[in-house]
Design a protein that fits this description.
alpha/beta, DHBP synthase, Rossmann fold, six-stranded parallel beta sheet, 20 strands, binds threonylcarbamoyladenylate, binds magnesium ion
Length: 499
């Protein structure tokens, strides 16, 4: 019997090229800069197919010939670079028409199975729209979601258990490493990770905010190893992560009405609450403070890990102290190396900045760190809160208030004004949204739709990409201080050069 072949089905617009809407002419084609490199890697192990939903044909905005012409043009660019696309599949229908292409099974996977002997169960779909992931699931393949194209815009519609990636290259890493987990460095699954934690080991794991480096809260020796691996000073306390309210009761006896309201509204999610601690919580977790910071993350992998380990998990972000937080498993390994911990893969983090830290030990709740939950949302539930945004704060109530943190190695400058043109190829630029700029150096736009949530999800990965280019400096422009804009600006401010 011939061996069933495995394939990767790639969405065209937003995944391999920019989505500039109803592309009818070749001058509108703009390939992502990592597309070719990625496809060359994938084709060593997978047949490649490109799938494209051209609803513009059904709507009469472009003709079938125009779409075909654009496909041929892209196909030729890829071929000239050594990439062979097995087949192109175009769906010309409007979404409203409930076309046969998508129901009951996505036609392209079925067709590729029939025509080329592709095994759906060994195949993947990569796309920037939630329906790409649905197609895959309906046909027994696995779908991966990318934040390029419309990925940021539709993120809110995506089910929580779908893995997301910043771009096609990261999604390919995921597909290719899947085949190599055996004997490969320190990746492990949830069950083994939980076992390792229970035996006093450290496990890095995905949360919806950033990757954490976890240890059993009630195992001080293991917690000590977190500080050593991160080179983190002991005065900086850790957040305890829980998967149930029962676990909260292992950490504090003081859950007042404000806390109850906040928990009901925002847990699981990117909100950390600081409570008076129970005596049994080890000092090493709380930095000797009489308080304990607790959060229930919403990432399904994080919740499953905590539940299986059956203990609260103390976890800071899985980076060296003061450096940029990791939003993929690869970022963790780049920073921490491969020794002294195991890691669970979980794609890119959806929120992308750390949780909001709110202290409930004061009469008026106090914001200790802006983060993944907007202050405006908290105030809707419990009214006005105080902000502790003052570096002179005595004995640093929360080291998250330290002036320097989250820093890339390249000096970064944060600028208030509108972007200026950049004539220096050694200067990188971080923009928020649709601002236009002429630049001889690399540019990272954090959101294409002026959406601070999308900007947060892209922030750290963009900082890391620029940091690898050997630039002289990075100039970042501030977002409006609203919603998650507050957290993004806070991180940029702390990443800014203090020399
Ligand atoms: O999103 C997050 O919060 C991530 C993920 C892994 O959950 N974790 C994270 O941890 O960012 P870390 O250690 O990088 O930041 C924890 C922040 C620090 O600013 C720390 O000072 C503050 O929480 N914190 C922890 N315990 C505290 C306490 N008892 N009182 C006041 N602040 C506390
Ligand atoms: Mg951190």
């Amino acid at each position: 019997m011939p061996i069933p072949k495995k394939a990767v089905f790639l969405d065209r617009d937003g995944t391999i090229i920019q989505d500039s809407g109803y592309i009818g002419t070749t001058d509108k084609v703009e390939m992502f800069n990592n597309t070719i490199e990625t496809l060359l890697r994938l084709q060593k192990e997978y047949e490649l197919f490109i799938v494209t939903n051209q609803s513009g044909i059904g709507k009469g905005l472009i003709t079938e010939e125009e779409a075909e012409n654009v496909n041929n043009y892209i196909d030729k660019i890829l071929k000239d670079s050594g990439v062979n696309i097995k087949e192109w599949y175009t769906c010309p229908h409007k979404t409203e028409d409930n076309c046969k292409c998508k129901k009951p099974q996505p036609f392209f996977i079925e067709k590729a199975a029939k025509d080329f002997g592709i095994d759906p169960a060994a195949s993947w779909v990569i796309g920037d729209h939630p329906h790409d992931v649905d197609f895959a699931a309906n046909a027994g393949a696995k779908g991966l979601y990318v934040l390029t194209g419309h990925g940021g815009k539709h993120l809110k519609e995506l089910p929580a258990d779908v893995e997301i990636f910043h771009n096609i290259s990261e999604a390919a890493d995921r597909i290719l490493s899947k085949n190599k987990t055996k004997g490969n460095n320190n990746y492990c699954n949830i069950k083994d990770g939980a076992e390792y934690l229970k035996n006093g080991g450290l496990v890095a794991f995905p949360t919806e905010t950033v990757y954490g480096l976890g240890a059993d809260v009630f195992c001080p020796d293991a917690v000590e190893n977190i500080f050593a691996l991160k080179k983190r000073p002991h005065f900086d306390p850790l957040i305890s992560h829980i998967s149930s309210i029962n676990m909260l009761q292992m950490l504090t006896d003081t859950v007042d009405e404000r806390a109850q309201k906040l928990i009901k509204a925002f847990w699981p999610g990117p909100l950390t609450l600081v409570f008076p601690k129970k005596e049994s919580v080890p000092d090493i977790v709380t930095g000797g403070n009489p308080t304990v910071a607790v959060r229930m993350p919403s990432h399904p992998t994080a919740l499953a890990l905590i539940e299986k380990a059956n203990t609260p998990i103390a976890a800071p972000s899985a980076n060296s102290f003061g450096k940029t937080s990791p939003t993929t498993s690869k970022h963790v390994i780049e920073q921490l190396g491969t020794e002294g911990y195991k890691i669970i893969e979980g794609g890119a983090c959806r929120v992308g900045v750390e949780s909001t830290v709110l202290s409930l030990v004061h009469k008026t709740p106090m914001l200790l760190r802006p983060g993944g939950l907007a202050v405006e949302e908290i105030e809707k539930i419990i009214g006005k809160i105080d902000t502790a945004n003052k570096p002179q704060l005595k004995n640093l109530e929360s080291p998250g208030l330290l002036a320097s943190h989250y820093a890339p190695s390249t000096p970064l400058y944060l600028i208030d004004a509108l972007p200026k043109d950049n004539g220096n190829p050694k200067t990188g630029i971080i923009l928020f949204g649709e601002q236009k700029i002429k630049s001889d150096g690399p540019v990272e736009a954090l959101s294409t739709t002026n959406d601070p949530e999308e900007a947060a999800a892209n922030l750290y990965a963009a900082m890391r990409r620029l940091d690898k280019l050997g630039l002289e400096k990075i100039i970042a422009y501030k977002l409006p201080d609203k919603g998650l804009g507050l957290a993004v600006n806070d991180r940029l401010k702390k990443a800014a050069y203090k020399g």
